[in-house]
Design brief:
The protein is mainly α and 461 residues long. Helices cover 75% and strands 2% of the residues.
């Protein structure tokens, strides 16, 4: 009996205009989105290779180590293949980072900036599922019960002594299959064409993450389907169901996620970038002013250089403390924003999917910590190389030979390699347990609400 009911629901959906609309929308949006972002990924790979090669050539041409420690070197993170599905914070993480001993490491301007992508950003799979698929789930289920009750079809079904729970389960399964089939077909088609026409290729771990992304997407779509089905079981007019579903969708998908950061900013304010820049300049002015007030007559060159190094070290240490305090406040504001935004399942879906794609908040924080550690390794290595060359130069009597030793070209392999790792899938799932739990619990609650409403549904109204 259940199979017959499921088959009836699937046929009803497949033969409807909603199925054709869903198939067309999914196919056009997903295939074109993945293809466009994959083409941009090709350009990112080329830019990444060229930047790395240019930096290596710059190091090989000749290096003044004091200038290297002050001016530093630029490093780049390899573009993330899964960003074609969920961009997340990829644009921020793919920027060049300047590493030096005397200034805080920070992200520079993106090499991959394309003004057309700024004006008209290509919607990735995350955006399509979050907005389009959730709305289509509402469209599929808003009249699943009240619509059939209104046209009398539900009375005919129930006249055959069919258990109500079987009818409800068939409506959920049949409608969900009809909705997910074009979605999965479009995703597989998009990935097939992208891998044929671009340099996009996934590793084994990335394929597993892709499966996780599709699983979370299926859970999110199911949530809105169950929610719409529940509302359909609580009202008796399709127009009423459509209005309520649309208002709830707007609230959960558009209002809450976009309002939460604003509320968090008001509840946990942080200094502006201009204020921080002013404090950094004040630190530098204070240190250099103190240094200019010292009596340096009669000092040896080495003593003067040591005094200069100490001043630079103080500036660096005090600046690091300032930046650390600022980043702590930023993290507190982000944590509050995450907590408020999780009122909406849309936020949980975005967090979980971006984390699986390696472009989420956790990956961004890990990259920031990796940059901090890499800077420490870079500073230690440059000091070690400088000390070694200085000892070699001291054994030479000729000043020209000493200068050649200190400014000799450097093998890029002597410096620490900038290779940020990717978090294991198990660690990502552990970190996203809260979001996955929210999605699963809401699925269960909405389906139980639909069950309760349908068991009490008045067929005679």
């Amino acid at each position: 009996m259940l199979q017959l009911l499921i088959g009836k629901e699937i046929r009803g959906h497949v033969l409807s205009y909603r199925f054709l609309l869903t198939l067309a929308l999914f196919f056009v949006l997903i295939v074109s989105s993945v293809q466009l972002i994959a083409l941009n990924y090709d350009r990112q790979l080329v830019s990444y290779s060229e930047a790395k090669r240019a930096q290596d050539e710059k190091l090989k041409e000749g290096t003044d180590f004091r200038r290297l420690m002050w001016g530093g070197t630029k490093v780049d993170r390899r573009p993330n293949a899964l960003s074609v599905l969920a961009m997340g914070l990829e644009k921020e993480m793919s920027r060049s980072v300047t590493i030096s001993s005397f200034q805080q490491a920070k992200l520079g301007r993106s090499k991959y900036a394309n003004p057309l992508f700024v004006l008209f950003p290509a919607p990735d799979l995350l955006y399509i599922v979050n907005i389009v698929a959730s709305l289509l789930a509402v469209l599929f289920a808003f009249d699943a019960v009240c619509g059939e009750s209104q046209d009398g079809t539900l009375k005919l079904i129930m006249a055959n002594s069919v258990p109500r729970h079987a009818v409800l389960l068939a409506k959920w399964i049949g409608g969900y299959i009809a909705l997910m089939a074009p979605f999965l077909l479009s995703v597989l088609t998009a990935l097939f064409f992208a891998q044929l026409t671009t340099a996009l290729h996934f590793t084994g771990a990335e394929w597993l993450a892709l499966v996780g992304i599709l699983g979370v997407s299926a859970l999110y779509i199911s949530l809105f389907y169950a929610l719409s089905l529940m509302i359909s079981c609580l009202v008796h007019r399709t127009s009423t169901s459509l209005v309520i579903n649309f208002l709830v969708w707007v609230l959960l998908v558009l209002v809450v996620p976009n309002t939460a950061p604003i509320v968090a900013r008001a509840l946990a304010p942080i200094p502006s970038a201009g204020v921080i820049a002013g404090k950094r300049e004040a630190i530098q002015r204070a240190v250099w002013s103190e240094m200019r007030g010292m009596r340096r007559r009669g000092m040896e060159n080495e003593e003067r250089q040591q005094l200069l190094d100490d001043a630079q070290m103080r500036i660096r240490d005090e600046t690091d403390k300032l930046i650390t305090s600022y980043l702590t406040k930023v993290d507190q504001q982000i944590a509050l924003g995450i907590l408020l935004a999780r009122i909406s399942p849309s936020t949980s879906y975005v967090y979980a999917t971006a984390a699986l794609a390696g472009s989420g908040l956790g990956e961004f924080a890990s990259l920031r910590e990796y940059i901090k550690k890499y800077r420490q390794d870079f500073m230690a290595k440059t000091r070690e190389i400088t000390a070694t060359r200085r000892r070699q130069a001291e054994s030479m009597a000729d000043r020209e030979e000493q200068r050649e030793i200190m400014e000799a070209p450097i093998d890029p392999g002597d410096l620490p390699q900038f290779v940020p790792g990717r978090a294991d899938l198990s660690a990502v799932l552990d970190g996203g347990q809260a979001d996955l739990l929210i999605l699963m619990v809401l699925n269960v609650l909405f389906f139980l609400g639909a069950y309760r409403g349908f068991m009490r549904y008045d067929l005679m109204r």
